[in-house]
Recover the amino acids of this structure.
């Protein structure tokens, strides 16, 4: 693997997909809920129908694509690099779907609900196809802990650069108020992201470069036929019966819920709980951008700690911090606007930063599975895909649950009330509901994650001798 001017070529190529996906995913997750609720005026029923359809597709496509990529003889699927190269242009096109309405929507328009279903399913399907291949590359290109930390480091720099898309998008479009500027910006982001991901497809390498040449033997080993149902069930059962996998998946479900909670509603909560005369529009844009930029800085700064203490203890510490911070903020109350802004931003940073480390335990689970079952090739995509089968539904559950609670307190009518709605009793109740959601959701999630992460037994892989 070439090292030019101190830059590791393969790690750089790998991280280009992280850069491209980071630019698109940050914008998509941060803006799509507000776009469909506030601009397109989707009904609550239509929103829930879209999220239920998305939840089913979101759960099914990950293990499906994982099995195909681990067992297919087609080069576009069997070779991780080709999956990224051919999937990247379609991924970029799918990213553009939500930002261009199919017609001028009326309030509660059924076509708006269909638009959301298509946008969510297409975007997540292509995201899954491309990023599963990249996750498999993570496990397969570097067998050692220090090599994987290098990939994490390069990926965090790439994610840091990619996450600035939210900051610049907010500044250029005035937080989506100037929708024409917003649309031009997302088209440019799609083109740039596609080019970045294609670099991974062309230049990244793996220790299983000749994977497709071994597929016939691997298929015989894994169960008589690449796409037999018995093979899928058998391999999935082997993965799911591992205690460490179950601990990780349970903890990760709550992490995905927590992350979706912040990505989808941080802007809505901040706009309603923090008066505009306290934080200007430009300051808010910086705050929103910080929620996506600072996690990468934090991971980069904690690189030495990861080598010394390992990912297990760092992740566990983050859960304790989130729980304590939520309890303190709840006791102080919502009148402390600057403190509330700091709390929401830092909590989002911690959640995203710890989530950025989750490829490390998954890669260790892939290694343990490879050794335990004496496989010739690791089932990297299947492990990552099976994890997603149980965690991805949280991406849909979070907005469904939170929106139902908010609408119970009058959020649906927020933009239709004349005069100054913030002084009415009903909207004061809405603000109270928002504040308690901001505090109690993180507290409860942190408590559950501590319980489920503590039994995870691969705690010292950072101390393993290089192989």
């Amino acid at each position: 693997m070439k090292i030019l001017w101190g830059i590791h070529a393969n790690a750089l190529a790998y991280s280009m997909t992280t850069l491209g996906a980071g630019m698109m995913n940050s914008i998509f997750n941060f803006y799509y809920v507000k776009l469909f609720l506030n601009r397109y005026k989707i009904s609550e029923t239509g929103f829930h129908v879209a999220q239920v359809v998305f939840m089913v597709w979101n759960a099914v496509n990950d293990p499906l694509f994982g099995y195909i990529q681990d067992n297919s003889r087609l080069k576009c699927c069997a070779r991780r690099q080709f999956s990224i190269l051919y999937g990247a242009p379609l991924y970029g096109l799918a990213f553009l779907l939500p930002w261009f309405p199919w017609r001028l929507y009326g309030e509660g328009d059924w076509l708006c609900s269909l638009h959301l279903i298509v946008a969510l399913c297409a975007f997540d399907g292509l995201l899954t196809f491309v990023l599963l291949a990249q996750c498999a590359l993570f496990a397969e290109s570097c067998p050692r802990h220090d090599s994987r930390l290098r990939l994490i480091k390069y990926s965090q720099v790439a994610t840091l650069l990619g996450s600035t898309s939210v900051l610049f998008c907010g500044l250029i479009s005035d937080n989506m108020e100037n929708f024409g500027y917003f649309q031009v910006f997302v088209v440019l982001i799609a083109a740039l992201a596609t080019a970045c991901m294609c670099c991974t497809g062309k230049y990244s390498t793996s220790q299983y470069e000749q994977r497709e040449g071994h597929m016939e033997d691997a298929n015989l080993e894994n169960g008589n036929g690449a796409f037999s149902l018995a093979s899928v069930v058998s391999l999935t059962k082997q993965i799911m019966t591992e205690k460490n996998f179950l601990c990780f998946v349970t903890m990760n479900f709550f992490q995905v819920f927590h992350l979706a909670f912040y990505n989808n509603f941080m802007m809505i909560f901040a706009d309603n709980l923090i008066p505009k005369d306290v934080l200007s529009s430009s300051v808010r844009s910086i705050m929103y951008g910080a929620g996506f930029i600072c996690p990468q800085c934090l991971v980069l700064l904690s690189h030495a700690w990861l080598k010394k203490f390992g990912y297990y203890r760092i992740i566990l510490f983050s859960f304790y911090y989130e729980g304590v911070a939520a309890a303190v903020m709840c006791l102080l109350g919502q009148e402390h606007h600057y403190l509330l802004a700091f709390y929401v931003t830092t909590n989002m940073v911690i959640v995203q930063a710890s989530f950025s480390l989750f490829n490390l335990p998954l890669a260790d689970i892939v290694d343990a599975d490879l050794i335990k079952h004496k496989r010739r090739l690791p089932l990297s995509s299947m492990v990552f895909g099976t994890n997603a089968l149980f965690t991805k539904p949280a991406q849909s559950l979070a907005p469904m649950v939170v929106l139902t609670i908010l609408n119970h307190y009058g959020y649906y009518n927020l933009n239709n009330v004349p005069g100054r709605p913030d002084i009415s009793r009903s909207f004061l109740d809405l603000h109270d509901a928002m504040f308690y959601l901001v505090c109690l959701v993180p507290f409860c999630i942190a408590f559950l994650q501590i319980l489920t992460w503590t039994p995870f037994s691969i705690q010292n892989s950072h101390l393993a001798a290089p192989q």
The two ends are 17 Å apart (CA to CA). The first helix runs from residue 9 to 39.
